[in-house]
Amino acid sequence: MNRPLLAITICFALGVLFNSLLAVESGIVLAAVLVACCLALACYVLHRREGVVVIWLLFLFLGWFWAGVGEKTAGQGPEQYAGHYVTLEGTVDSEPQYGSGGEDAVYILAARAVYLGERRVETTGLVQVKVKGGGPVFSYGEQLRADGFVYRPREPGNFGAFNYRDYLERRGIHCLMTVMGPEHIRIVASEGGRVSLMGLALESKSTLWQVADATLDPRQSAVLGGMLFGSRDRIDRATNDIFAETGVAHVLCVSGLHVGFVLAGVFLVAAAFGLPRRAYLLILVPVLTFYAVMTGLGPAVFRASVMAVLVLAAALLGRERDWPTALALAAGLLLLINPLYIHELGFQLSFAATWGILYLGPLLGEFFRIRFSLPHWMAIPLQVTMAAQLATMPLLVYHFNLISFIAPLANLLLVPLVGVIMLAGFTGCVAGLIFLPAAELINASTGALIDLFLALAGLLNGIPGGAAYVATPPWLAVPLWYLGLVLVVETVRGRIKLPGINRLGKIGPMVAGVLLMLVLIWPWSGTGGRMQVHFLDVGQGDSILVRFPGGKAMLVDTGGRPGEPDEVRMTGDAVVVPYLHNLGINRLNALVITHPHEDHAGGVPAVLEKLKVDALVITDAPGYDDIIALAESFRVPVYRTGTGQTLQLDEMVDVLVLAPGRGDAVTGLSSNDASLVLRLDYRDSSFLLTGDIEEQAQQLLLASGAELQSDVFKVPHHGSRFYEPRFFNEVAPDFAVIQVGENNRFSHPAAVTIETLMSTDTMVLRTDRHGAVLITTQGESFKVQTAKTPSN
Fold first, then answer.
1. pTM of the model
2. Residue 702: which H helix or E strand, with range?
3. How far does CA 602 lie from the centroid of its chain?
4. How are the residues of the chain apportioned to helix, strand and coil, as percentages rounded to the nearest 5?
5. Helical (H) or strand (E) element with 658
6. How many CB atoms lie within 10 A of CB 655?
7. Which residues of 483-511 are buried (b: 16+ CB within 10 A; e: fewer)?
8. Distance between the two ends of the chain, CA-based, in angstroms?
9. In a 3-state reduction of DSSP, which class is residue 164?
10. pLDDT tens profile 579-615
11. What CA–CA distance (Å, rounded) separates 33 from 426?
């Protein structure tokens, strides 16, 4: 068996994947393991060649079984108190995390007990605790007692949304707790002088970062922390976006690049002291272990550390360096520690990038040196960059819908700066432990380098067409991409013969590359000539996406939440824009804001920043000044509209404005009653979008004589009790959609509103229960899809 460890690891990983794809009782899988084990033993005794296949099956079933054992079901720990205010006692299990503004602190507590009044209940499990307002910083190992509300994370409410609940459960966290201020959390006990590797590593990291905070401005310190330690929680949203869209976000995730810099540092120090080469390994192992623990011991740094040690050991011992075996060993160890790592994007990207660099890189290097006659010093960085990009592209498209065309150039220009920044920053922070003015002097240059890095990244990010968002491809496109890459490489190397590519000669690989790219950028989420109306789950707010048969798109409202500017726009950043990108939408032909309340217009800044918007449509009502100023700053034309006007977006769809009127017609109306009301007619189907209109506006619409009967009715004001029953009867919809937040403080929707709708046999769909609602029509019948299945 050639490279047995590689084959065994692949089979084990496939077994882990099968566990998540197929629901099979663990007892059945265990029986399959025992049967395969007996067959393998029999083949060994009888010297049968089939034993190799049986061993592969054995490890496939072992991976399947091990993944089932690794899954922890909810309901056995503190999560059983979800929905209650309790006092939780537990030990800090990791370093605290902070929002970009540093206003809230987040801790992972290993629970010991829950207090229900005076009653103490022993329990175990991890809880993610958010402390509003931050407060004093608690360290790893300290025992805390916190008073707060326990709840389960919500399942994703939108199609294609990130599943935060699954993400936490893979880390053993089944519930969250919100503590409403630092006065509600306190220390019960500390480690009391007990030293642990984790505690020492995190304390060292905190101390170094304090020096960075004292000698750099907040943005510089946050970026340096990301580069040195992989901590991104303090980096602001705009900076994170620049890193992502230029394809250099990997420098903020500790991986092979960072381990390589640590390895170079160890070599330099060892050489400076004249140590023998065989001593390098004795130094490298503890240094890498400490660094891995300091940076969170994620899959990427674990993989890079294992491979670095194996490659160095092979070189020192004079053994053959076989990177597939080293990569397989790292993956196997990680999956043994936690089989659910295979679902982690960090695990996938790390191994994909490494495979690309080592498998695709040599062929690309030959291509650049022979075809373009590039010198080695230029060809090698280019081959590494291109290989990593090709290997990670399908994962980035599948998870983030992002293709960065500027990434190769950005990596060539910016990655070399990272090593210099890390060296200068680490040197400055260590010097600051001895003499702070020395750190200030050194980190003056570190700060200048970080500013240069960010300026170059911002400049590259500003290049038109440098990045684009494409629709999420089907999962099958990802393995097809990798299969295609392998076939191209093996064909060029002459190891296999594909007649179609071989007949094309030198342009064969280029044709194959174009076909592979089409797999990723194909418009998988197109409308197929139909009209789609998406009612997004934005919590207590409204956001509706209309995709017309001709391909254009209109967004009606952007969601939002009350609070500070960053909180107001959070729905736009975290929900609306990702939803549009998931569909491959980079451009809106119209952005309609029904009225300027935060729950309808809060996401406008995010939408205008991240998408091309052709027109902003509003009413003559007051309150739009900030939105207009923002639109003008992005050179988006602003159009005011009113009763009787139409929006010309698709020749097959009439978009008619029913209310409010222009000019003085809005005088005396509340902001809710001045909401823009749209009627969409496509052949024999109709949609009525009503904003937040209440009784007065509904009565005015009844008096206007406008055609109100509609097939699909966006219920006004989140199902408020302030409605006119005659208006609902006149609309007489088949489907009524209520956009409303779960457990909202307004008690929306009102029971009487639901009763009125259901009394006319209307199908009522609620985003708090059904999640996002997608209604598709070809102009006659309707297809209704929901992101969630309601539990009741």
1. 0.89
2. helix 695-704
3. 21
4. 50, 15, 30
5. strand 653-659
6. 24
7. ebbeebbebbeeeeeeeebeeeeeebbee
8. 55
9. helix
10. 999 999 999 999 999 999 999 999 999 999 999 999 9
11. 49
